[in-house]
Specification:
The chain is of the alpha/beta class. It is built from 15 helices and 15 strands. Helix 1 crosses helix 4, helix 6 packs across helix 8 (163-172) and helix 14 crosses helix 15 (371-378). The chain is globular, with a radius of gyration of 21 Å.
Length: 399
């Protein structure tokens, strides 16, 4: 199927061609017709399959550029994801020569400057839920003409402290507004929230596979104290051009980044305690190629799109993250599907847009017992490997 088969306007198809996008992905094929018809829908597809365009493409023709009013609000859980969506919206409008204006509203930046931008009556607002609600309640973001509200990474925003903000945004929009949700996964609590927010929501899937088949999944068993040094050796063994290393805690991210920098590796860390400017510099560095290795906390696992990432390293596997331990009451009664979804979000940062990628998890012997559960939940195979004399080779599983 081609984009022409989806009845998209010629200017949008031409805009996609400028981005070297010629064929729709499965989620775009499933989503564009019902969204163009104004239906409420939940877009569920693996990461890197074009969910952002799956909702932008049908929404753009429904925006009236001549109407000086905000008509679409897109909510994202992280600043980085909001910035990505905003850039995609601006690029699509520019390449299609459409007079559709988009404004970014996120915390950590001057509110007064954002209020000034809202005076220009942008057609699309993209931002974090807290800042959007703040500006609505202050009367600076007018909501009477909002035709669609998009909740990106919905299973996160509908399951934590953001839910109250999301409900306020939805209530503030026009009564006949369209609701669009997008995520790689869906939690049981999310399903319950959907019943109240959008009882007639369409559940749309973009392909049956939960995990990108272009990813090789490996794991290496070592002592916890040896993980940073083992990571350094793996980076050399794989000769990694661009990678993301996931850890649980911000202090660990800083420590590992310092150790790798000492060995003259181009590295930066991305964690929630950094300032907005430091996070932006880190993102710009890895996108430009000046930085080869990004050390990230789980915050970056949701929606982050860094082109050209070839390797994902789980220095800490998702099992023992602080967020997860808090969620299960600091016990080891593990909710295995939830653990597997965390793994899914992390490894989805590689092998995007048809490319190939590798995910390597460094585990202790105790943590290695969960490998089989990842395999069962996600339908994948994780190969045990070892590192000897600077070379990676298959190894026997300890379990």
């Amino acid at each position: 199927m081609k984009f022409t088969d989806l009845s998209l306007p010629p200017e949008l198809i031409a805009a996609l061609a400028k981005q070297q996008i010629f064929d729709p992905s499965p989620i775009q094929i499933a989503a564009i017709p019902p969204l163009a018809a104004g239906k409420d829908a939940y877009l569920r597809a693996e990461t890197g399959t074009g969910k952002t365009l799956a909702y932008l493409l049908p929404l753009f023709p429904r925006i009236d550029p001549a109407q000086a009013a905000t008509q679409v609000v897109i909510v994202a859980p992280t600043h980085e994801l909001a910035i990505q969506i905003h850039r995609q919206s601006c690029e699509l409008a520019l390449n299609a020569a459409l007079a559709i204006r988009s404004v970014l509203l996120i915390g950590g930046t001057a509110t007064d400057r954002q209020i000034e931008k809202l005076k220009a009556k942008p057609h699309v607002v993209v931002g974090s839920p807290g800042r959007i609600v703040e500006l609505i309640e202050r009367g600076k973001l007018k909501t009477a003409h909002i035709r669609a509200v998009v909740i990106d990474e919905a299973d996160r925003l509908l399951n934590d402290e953001s839910l109250d903000w999301i409900q306020k945004i939805v209530r503030a929009a026009a009564p006949a507004r369209q609701l669009i949700f997008a995520s790689a996964t869906i939690e049981q609590q999310t399903r319950r929230v959907l019943e109240s927010l959008a009882p007639d929501v369409l559940m749309l899937r973009g392909g049956a596979a939960a995990v990108n088949k272009n990813i090789d999944h490996l794991y290496l068993v070592c002592e916890s104290r040896d993980k940073p040094e083992m990571l350094r050796k793996l980076l050399h063994a794989f000769d990694v051009p661009r990678s993301i290393v996931f850890v649980h805690r911000n202090d660990v991210a800083e420590e590992v980044a310092s150790k790798l920098t000492h060995h003259k590796l181009a590295v930066a860390d991305l964690n929630s305690e950094l300032s907005k400017m430091d996070r932006k510099q880190a993102m710009d560095g890895i996108r430009s190629g000046a930085i080869r290795i990004m050390i990230a906390s789980d915050l970056a696992a949701r929606g982050l799109n860094i082109p050209g990432v070839t390797h994902i390293f789980n220095l800490d596997i998702p099992t023992l993250s602080k967020a997860y331990l808090h969620r299960v009451g600091r016990t080891f009664n593990l909710d295995i599907p939830t653990l597997s979804k965390a793994y899914l979000h992390r490894v989805g940062r590689t092998a995007r847009a048809g490319a190939h990628g590798t995910a390597v998890s460094l585990v202790t012997e105790t943590e290695a017992r969960l490998i089989r559960r990842y395999e069962q939940d996600l339908g994948i195979s994780l190969q045990c490997v070892r590192l000897r004399d600077g070379k990676i080779s298959p190894a026997s599983s300890p379990h």
